[in-house]
Amino acid sequence: MGMIEQIVDASRAGVERRKAETPLPELEARLGDRVKPRPFNEALTRPGLSLIAEFKRRSPSAGDIRPGATIEEVVRQYEAGGAAALSVLTNEDHFGGSVQDLRAACDASELPVLQKDFVVDRYQLSEAAAFGADAVLLIVAALEDAELAALYEEAVGLDLDCVVEVHDEPELERALEHGAEVLGINNRNLDDFSVDVATTFELITDVPAGKTVVSESGISDRETLDELERVGVDAVLIGEALMRADDPEAKVRELVGDEPATREHVL
After folding, report:
1. How many structural domains compose the chain?
2. Is 164 exposed, middle or buried (CB count within 10 Å of its CB: 0-12, 13-18, 19+)?
3. Range of the domain at 115
4. From residue 210, how far is each of 40, 182, 215, 240 by CA, in Å?
5. What is the mean pLDDT of residues 24-47?
6. Positive or negative CA dihedral for 256, 258, 261, 267?
7. How much of the chain, in percent, has pLDDT values that exceed 90?
8. Is the pLDDT assigned to residue 235 strictly greater than 80?
9. What pLDDT was estimated at residue 190?
10. For the whole prediction, is pTM greater than 0.70?
């Protein structure tokens, strides 16, 4: 069994456990108190290149990333540095996250927030909305076509923006067939966790005009951001490079420079 299958299986088991603790009707009842979602997609389409700054506690390939860090402290530094949006990795078994991290980030920052997880059940979408997410990640490699279509429709119905993640040509074709408007190109191979930013440069040539493109994984310097912007990337999602920085705020500033898309909210 590959890593992606292991994570998906663990995600399904986690969903069943949480359903037993908090049944779906109880979770949906909380949506009445939900505040109006912040415009995640709009944060990616302003002029210039937008930075989505990610909080993640650990990963299967890297282990613990920033032990002892509080999510409130980190996301406030991201916002002060000029990030356009946040990503919070909530997967429990393999990444050490939780929906409580999602709520904490939403409460600590004014930025729109993407819940990054392996979504395999509509329960997770209601959970994301109830805990404050403005957008969710749908990973093509983790879903059959019928699942992808149903989850995309359900997310839109919950007023959640969607980033549909792909990492090869067949996955890109499937995402486009399902009408994805925001495409996350993951430079990390989810089978062996190797990273190659060339993935974005290869796939973006097949993305139709009018789609929003987010490049994910393996990005840590301004030179790479400039190259990605030149080929038409709208946003980058950066996690580990920021989480490992001695000063996350300064690292964000170094990466975004004077990008109007990322700095608009702090001007």
Report:
1. 1
2. buried
3. 3-30+37-266
4. 17, 10, 16, 29
5. 92
6. positive
7. 80
8. yes
9. 77
10. yes
CA distance 20 to 27: 11
Query: What values do phi and psi take at 49, rounded to 5?
Result: -100, 125
**pLDDT tier for residue 259 given thresholds of 50, 70 and 90:** low
Query: Which residue reads 């005009």 in tokens?
Result: 209
Whole-angstrom distance, CA of residue 51 vs CA of residue 43:
9
Model confidence pLDDT, tens digit, residues 109-128: 999 999 999 999 999 999 99
Helices (H) and strands (E) in the chain, counts: 13, 10
Tokens matching residue 226? 């400039």
- The closest alpha carbon to 153, from 117, 119, 179, 186, belongs to 179
Q: Under a CB-based contact definition with an 8 Å cutoff, are residues 192 and 3 in contact? A: yes
Q: At 248, which CATH number? A: 3.20.20.70
Report the C-alpha gap between 114 and 118 in whole angstroms: 13
Active-site annotation, residues: 54, 56, 116, 165, 186, 216-217
